[in-house]
Structure formats: C-alpha cells, structure tokens
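Supplementary Methods. Inverse-folding protocol.

Structures were first reduced to a discrete structure-token string of length 170. This string, shown here, constituted the complete conditioning input.
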C-alpha cells in the first residue's frame, strides 16, 4: 500500500506540472453558465463521521447541465447512498479520474466506455444521495492516478485553484 500511495502522490505532482505547463484550458467548470467567481472553495471542510470534503460543491438549480470538465472516457456509472447518481470519468491521458455526484439524471444514452469531449453535456445537476434537497449542487472531485488503475483509486486534488486559474498546486 505504501508503494501505491507514493505512486499516486507522484501522479499528483505530475498532474500539477501538466496544469502549470498548459494553463487553465486543461479544465472547464463542469456546470453550464458559471464563471470562476461563482465558485466557492469547499475543500477540507468537515462532513461529519470523520470525513473531510476533498472536492468542490458547485451550487446550481436542479436540471442545470453538467459538462465534462476534460476530454476522456466514461469509466463507471454508479449509484451510492452518499453520492447518489454518479459518474466516474477518466481523463484522456489516463492519469486523472473526475467524479461527478448528486446528479439528477444522466444524459440520454450515456454509457460506460463512451468517449466524451470537454464541454459535452453528460448529466444534470440534482440533489441525489445525501445532498440537502434545498441545496442542489454538483459534487466534483478530481483524483490523480495512473493509467489502468481502478475507477475509485487516486489521490484527491483540489479542483478549486484549477477551475479559477489560481494554479495553487504544490
Ligand atoms: Zn461535496
């Protein structure tokens, strides 16, 4: 496990270098119509039961289109108690998993294995799983990983500095 952890940390550092080298055009905000100034950094907040929030919550009205933040492939469509209706997408280079949760619905015809392009509609914003129905939002998580890893494996990376062009990764 120690080796795998080091490998993932290394993947996170590599990813940070990639972002620094290629600028903010690597990622887009995965909710239609929002600007960087609309985002709030919710990384590191306590979520009870000893869990720490290692993602960003992006508030938007129910049914707002959710967009693929990067080019890649749908890795897994999954429903869980906490996340509700979710999507795991692997980035085109295989080194990043993007996780979208609390969805209302998938885009019609969305399937595991499908290629998606950055900006393509993949779902709609909801409040499924343990989200507060009064606070529909997209829970968006990024995990640095290695090609061929499991769909839930990775080292979380804070999306907020990337989505706002602040490039504050170590
Ligand atoms: Zn969240």
């Amino acid at each position: 496990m120690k080796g795998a952890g080091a490998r993932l940390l290394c993947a996170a550092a590599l990813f940070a270098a990639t972002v620094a080298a290629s600028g903010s055009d690597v990622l887009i905000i995965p909710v239609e119509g929002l600007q960087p100034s609309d985002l709030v950094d919710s990384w590191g907040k306590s979520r009870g039961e000893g869990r720490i929030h290692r993602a960003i919550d992006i508030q938007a009205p129910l049914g707002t289109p959710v967009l693929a933040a990067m080019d890649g492939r749908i890795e897994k469509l999954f429903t869980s108690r906490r996340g509700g209706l979710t999507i795991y997408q692997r980035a085109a280079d295989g080194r990043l998993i993007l996780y979208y949760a609390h969805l209302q619905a998938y885009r019609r015809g969305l399937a595991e294995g499908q290629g998606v392009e950055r900006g393509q509609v993949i779902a709609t914003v909801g409040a499924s799983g343990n989200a507060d129905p009064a606070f529909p939002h997209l829970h968006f998580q990024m995990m640095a990983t290695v090609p061929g890893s499991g769909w839930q494996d990775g080292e979380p990376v804070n999306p907020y500095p990337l989505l706002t062009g602040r490039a504050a990764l170590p």
